[in-house]
Amino acid sequence: MANNYLEFSALLEDITPEERAWIERQLGSAWTDEDGKVLPDDREEDAYGEVARFIAEYDPETDPAPLGPDRDWGEVGFAYQWDGDNCLWIHSEESGLVDHVAYFVHKFLRMFRKNECWSLTWAGTCSKLCIGEFGGGAIFVTAEDIKFDNCYAWVERQRLAFLAKSN
User: Fold this and answer.
1) Running DSSP on this structure, what letter comes out for residue 1?
2) Tell me, what's the pLDDT at 53?
3) Domain range annotation of the chain
4) 12, 59, 29, 106 alpha-carbon torsion, rounded to 10°
5) Nearest to 9, CA basis, from 105, 119, 126, 92
6) Per residue in 39-65, pLDDT tens?
């Protein structure tokens, strides 16, 4: 049996002290009630579950960024650590959730850097040479939008364009 991995590594740079405080709060835990609504910080006794704050605050009605069904796990979905005082390293060596990264960075840009963009590429690898188990993709994030693409979608677009041209 083979193991599959989704790996990435990227930086959020030039973080100010205000941005760092916001990031640490968003990556920290929030308590929710049975319906998934975030409780005030002092309401832990009424809590149903503990999730990463940026996921707990996600509202599919108002947030354009898609979060898949994995958001119910409440996990951050990626590893992170500070590289110095003003640089956040976001990474995954095994099974990161790129939609979580995209939404987190989108929320950050919306809050602090409305005129900036950020991108991340990922690799989908396999511990054995299994056919069709290697790939990758990218996200491009702004304060307004998130765009995803992957190698399988790109290959399919090329195939369809080829078929259309040959008919």
Assistant:
1) -
2) 79
3) 4-166
4) 0
5) 92
6) 666 555 555 556 777 877 777 777 766
Q: Which two tokens stand for residue 143?
A: 């304060």
- What is the layout of strands, in order, in the sheet containing 88-92? 79-82, 88-92, 4-12, 117-126, 135-142, 146-150
CA distances from residue 87 to 4, 80, 97 in whole angstroms, order as listed? 29, 10, 20
Burial of 7 (0-12, 13-18, 19+ CB in 10 A): middle
Instruction: Tell the burial category of 161 from Cβ atoms under 10 Å away from its Cβ (0-12, 13-18, 19+).
Output: exposed
Per-residue pLDDT band at 122 (split at 50, 70, 90): very high
Supply the DSSP string of 18-58, one letter for each residue: HHHHHHHHHHSEEEE-TTSPBPPTT-GGG-SEEEEHHHHT-
Handedness of CA 28, 33, 36, 38 (dihedral sign): negative
Q: For 63-120, how does the pLDDT look when each residue is reduced to its tens digit (9 = 90+)?
A: 766 666 555 556 788 999 999 889 999 999 988 889 899 999 999 999 999 999 999 9
